[in-house]
Structures are given as C-alpha cells and as structure tokens.
Amino acid sequence: MPELLSPAGNPEKLRAALAYGADAVYLAGQQFGMRSQAGNFTVPQLYEAVELAHGMGKKVYLTLNTMPRTHEYPYLYKFLDDLRGCKLDAFIVADLGVMATVQEMLPDMEIHISTQASIISPAAACAYARMGAKRLVLARELQFSEIKAIKEALPSDIELEAFIHGSMCVSYSGRCLLANVMTDGRDGNRGTCSQPCRWNYTIYEEKRPHFPIPVEQTELGTFFLSSRDMCMIEHIPELMESGIDSFKIEGRMKSSYYTAVVTNTYRMAMDAYTKDPAGYKFDPDWMRELESVSHREYATGFYLDDPMKEPQLVQGGHYIGEKAYYATALESDSPEAQAELQAILDMKVAYETADGRLYRFMEKNKVRAADPAEIISPGKTGKFFYVGELYDTQGRIKANIPHPQMTFWARVPFEVTPGDIMRVGSKRES
Fold it and tell me: Is 320 helix (H, G, I), strand (E, B) or coil?
C-alpha cells in the first residue's frame, strides 16, 4: 500500500497528522525549508518529533529544499552537524549542492528529490537516481501516463512521491518569481512565499491605462495565475494503481484542523480500497469532509487531463473558509482531570445521563451550549450532535466557553476519545 505523507508545519500539526492516520510526515527546521512562516521546528523539537513518530512506527522527512547562496553554506554545515544524532528518515532536497553536502556529511541519510527540482521526464528521474536519490517527488504537472513512463524507466528500488491534495503552485512546481517583485523580495523559492499567484489581477497596457484587460482562459490554455487546489479523493483507485509509492498532502502553512481532516479522509479512502479493491465505492462523506477545510475551488490537477486543455483558473479568486474548530478532546484520567470532574459532580451534576456523559476538552474557538456540532475521530467522518451543558474546571455551568486554550467539560451523547475534534456541525438529511 502506498505511504500517506502529511504536512507537519509545527509540533501541533505533527501530532494531528500522526493521530489521524499519516504513515509519514514532512517538516522543516528553522532554516532551509520552503515554508519559513509555517512555525517549523527547532533542533531539539526535531529530535522530539522523530522520537514521537518512530514510537508510533511512522517516519519523518526533513525538507532542505531551498537554494542556498554561498554565504549560507556555513549555516547549512552547522545545521547538518546538529542533526547527526537525529534519526530522521530522509532529507528532501532540491539543490545539487545541498544534495552533495548531505551525502558528504551524513552519508547514510536517505535523499529524496524535492518537487522544486521539477522532475517531468524519465531522463531526469534516472539522472537523479544515478546520483544516489532514493525517492523522487514528481512535478505536479504530470499525467498518469507520464508517471507510468517514469516508473517503468527507474530501477525497482527507486520510489516515486506525488502530491494528491492541496495548492497547485504556478510554474513547474513552485518556481515562481512574482514574490521577488511584488512583495519586497519575499522569495518564493527561499521559504518566504506570500502566494501572489492567489491575488486578483487586472492587466493594463502601458499606453492605454484606462482600458483594463480581463484575465481570461481560452481553449488554448491559461495565461495567468490563480490555479485551483488539487483534490484527488474521487480517484483513489487510479492513484492506488499508478505506481506512486507515496501520496503527499500539501499544506504546512494550513491549520492543524486541515491537517487532521485531510489526512483522515485520505486514510479512510485508501484503507477502504485496500480492504476490498473490487468492491470499493466512493463515499460522498469524504468529499464533504474535504469541503470543510480552507481551500480554493477543487480540480484534479493534471493527472487526468492535458494542462493545455483542462481549465485550472479559479473563478472568483477566493478561499472557501473552513468549519470552525471548537475544541480538542483531552484525557480524563489524570489527577488534574479527576479533580475537575469531582468539582462538577459536587454541584449535583450527573456524570452520565440519557443525554450522554461528560467529556473533557481544550477550546480552540468559542463554543456555546446547544450549538450544532460534530465530532470527528480517526477513521470516521463527522458525527452530528447538539452541544450539551458546559462546565468550567471549577464545576460552574457556563453558557459558553469564550477563550482559546480553556479547559472545559461538555456532555456528548456518544463516546469521545482523546484527540477527537469538535467542530461546527451541519445536520444532514437522512
């Protein structure tokens, strides 16, 4: 079965990815990663991340996919030296100099070639394999037929990784120079991408400033920016039979809710196919789950269609907001939790009633008693309920829980396990 690879932009997102079904995560240190604003990990946190993931039987890949300049190499040497004892499973690199440096300083480290290298042909793939790469992260612009040709050209021990969900960076997999010009030098290829390709534009010709030219897509192709997000959830059979070894979810800059929901959804779909390929059926609830996270209009990228023919331009240019993330379920067995529960019971409140039992949560966003809500758990889609009575840690009943990071207790009419997510709910027609 292919690996499910999820983004871990910071320690919170790492825990979400691992809890909700990722086989592996990719993350970055404080330097040399393409998403410098993601939060990322200090060196001690990288050691902790590896220990946590390996304890769960999962892998950690470190992104070193920027293109360092000469003066930055001493910092790269120091960073790699600091990681000598960190049992990372692979480095993801794009620059040949970085690749050579890793091979020299950490000769046993597995090398994955970043999508930033824009691998789109068997010739390029085989060249990187000869250089010592174990895995190749393919450019986003490839069709299934092209991926098959690359797979067939490679030695059997070389793996392919491909994005299956998330943003479709303009140009060959992210080589966008707009950020340099339009955002005061925030270089998209050096970790400070501000996504100017997501902005709305109107073109004006220099000598005719009063005549705006609309940015349109024709039958010949798209001639300006603003691509849709990729979503391949409806094409799991094709992916599973494609020869791709690792399915990658984009989104280190996205929320922990995004990480949990998207990982969970693809995990359910992949497991369902593996369990019974012949009887596999797409579950519409999976798409409803993916519609609940922040995204632009969905499309299938270029897997199924010629990029010169299939429209990819977003209509409207706006993100679709994600459902409010109310809270995360906590452990209830610690001495602290038991003391909180006792304070509630001392107020003559029943622990368990016909309406459900009390569960402990950590708030993310304001939640009110009687709010329509859903609980999502690993391996399950959202389960609807109305929030029951709410209690603070002193046992006082509350109409709402107003502040992030507050611990509270809520009555839920079905079982909740630690790590489950409470979010705004929508009651579906039966």
Answer: strand
Closest to 193 in 3D by CA, of 65, 67, 37: 37
Interior angle at CA 89, CA 240 and CA 98, nearest 5:
105
Q: Residue 261: in which H helix or E strand, if any?
A: helix 256-275
Distance set, CA 95 to CA 92, 135, 181 (Å): 10, 15, 23
30 vs 28: CA distance, rounded Å: 7
Q: Which of 16-20, 177-181, 376-380 has the lowest mean pLDDT?
A: 177-181
Q: Average pLDDT in the 320-347 region? A: 93
Residue 196 to residue 225: CA distance in whole angstroms:
9
Residue 430, pLDDT > 50, answer no
Instruction: Among 3.40.440.10, 3.40.50.10260, 3.30.70.360, 3.20.20.70, name the CATH number for the domain at 3-299.
Output: 3.20.20.70
Mean pLDDT for 197-217 is 69
Report whether pLDDT(246) > 80.
yes
- What's the pTM? 0.87
- Enumerate the CATH 3.20.20.70 domain ranges in the chain, comma separated: 3-299
Q: Specify the domain boundaries for CATH 2.40.30.10 within the chain.
A: 325-424
Q: What HEC string does 100-140 produce?
A: HHHHHHCCCCCEEECHHHCCCCHHHHHHHHHCCCCEEECCC
pLDDT tens digits for 419-428? Answer: 999 999 987 6
CATH number of 325-424: 2.40.30.10
